[in-house]
Amino acid sequence: MAVENGFGVDFGLAPGMWVRHPTQPDWGPGQVQSVIGSRVTVNFENRGKVLIDSTVIQLEPAGEV
Question: Which residues have CB under 8 Å from 31's CB, separation 6+?
């Protein structure tokens, strides 16, 4: 169950965090640029900036990159 925590839905997304898209591994790791409610902007290494609805896509932590 997703929980709204002020920084985004799921595991507490915040700007600066590194994440991966669960169904687009070729995009590579991405750094969270902004979080507004469930809308997360991520700058992926091999795709560029993408706006993600975190109620639909649950980004995975990528650790330090």
Answer: 16, 17, 18, 19, 42, 43, 65
